[in-house]
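User: Can you write out an input/output pair for a complex, sequences first and structure second?

Assistant: Here is one pair. Inputs:
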Amino acid sequence: MSHCFTEVIMKPLGDSALIVQLGEGISPSIHQKVQALSMLLNTYPFDGFIESVPAFNNITIHYDPVLVHHTQLNNLANNQSSLTSFQIVCSNINELIQQIDDTQKVEARLVEIPVLYGGEYGPDLDDVAAYHKISPEDVIRIHTQSDCLVYMLGFAPGFPFMGGMDERISTPRRETPRLSIAPGSVGIAGKQTGVYPLETPGGWQIIGRTPLDLFRPDLSPPTLLQAGDKIKFVQISPEEYHSYKEMKR
Amino acid sequence: MTVKVLNQGLLTSIQDLGRYGSQKYGVIVSGAMDKYSLRVANLLVGNNENEGALEVTLLGTSLQFEKDMLIAITGGDLLASIDGEKAPTWRPILVRKGSVLQFKSPLKGCRAYVAFAGGIAVQEVMGSKSTYLRAGIGGFKGRALQKDDVITCSEMNEFSTLLFNKLNKRNGSFRWTVNYDVLINLQQTQTIRVIRGTEFDRFDEKSKRTLFNEPYTLTTQADRMGYRMEGPPLSLAKEFELLSEGVTHGTIQVPPNGNPIILMADRQTTGGYPKIAQIISADLPSMGQLQPTAKIHFKEISHEEAEIELLKKEQIINEIKTGIRFKGLYI
């Protein structure tokens, strides 16, 4: 069942969190393991578990060492505990890892993100095209044909770290970052593509904008995208962009 | 029961113990920079320790009470006064209708906490009253307090009412105070205990020694998100690329310029810089009381010792909790 988990490493991130390393580099197969362990943790949380944060090839687990300690004392009638909270948490996680079944894949959602490319909403589209000596239309075609996968969220609420963009449009970050990038902006930085949920400074090449809200604190979950989602970008016209915006009001 | 903001000061925001459970969505934890002071402030007025309270930064904040109220002031000593008289701190106090509470300047520490009996009546967002300034959610309308804002407080519970009535009869405050120096250190030169970070071994030998032998100074780029430190630069033994992964409160990360950054309450959920060390949880509240130019000596302890130090502090909080109950009921 879990024969391929010999490479699991657990590293303390201080006294109240730890990082469970499930592999090296970025690949959909390691991502599957990260997703599987995240789901198990949320379904069978141990006493003292606070939350888990998936990343490309590891998961950070935040826990309350005081609660872990007291739970242990309560469970031991004779009070002769000698395990640290960290050791207890590690053994709990090890048990969960044993339950990961590689043959069972977590079903991914497919999310379409409508994008108005170019113009004032995508000021770097022409630069990206010029960098690769192709037309702006080619950039849009390649971007919309990419099958992207959300590996993790971070940096800002709802900001997806995605892999899978066609490398023919990989472009280095801008030399001078912009002081302000509008929410919904779709950008490229190196091999990555992403969407800015909030207004922030940033150095990504902005090629378009989506009318969707990536962060919606009143809803549960509070973000449009989640780790594990498959993403397809879809080109829309200015009229469609504005009717999306109207619909939200 | 309402409180009016006469002056917002440098930065005053509503914080509780933080917004947990949404970091996987990139939603930051926020919460009080000095959690022990927040917890004690709440306990002193009979609140749940996780209740939202005001976090006052350095100076300038001034509040007017529009009714008689039970409050407590803890944290750094920011020369708090009530109607011009030195305000008692670290104990429950009754303030009269029309009174003005003012924070003049930081004598010791950086942040004070004001808890109101009953708690602050604002909506929880994703399970917390903490203000997430950058995303504009939580706390008071998602932002720091401003002049003329009016904060409303909720109904007091039974124990708060009992404290309120006792103080009302005695016309003032109790004689007893909580001894805070067993919980937090307000000195601006101090030793902070750390354990090794996940990438400690990736740093060169000189950096590994320097971190524990040389002092580091807080620069003026120090806020709720993090502290940029200045001192002998730290460097990796060999360059390598780290993918973004989880970070936490007290993570000490080192960007390519070699000056460490300490992540604080409003840190991002993930980061991509190598992590040389991690401040132990028991010392984080003291970190929240440091001002720019403060000097830190990092001292390495083991992971096991870090857990023991945290359990000791929890024990102290428990004793304070019991003490407040006892004194409130019988003294």
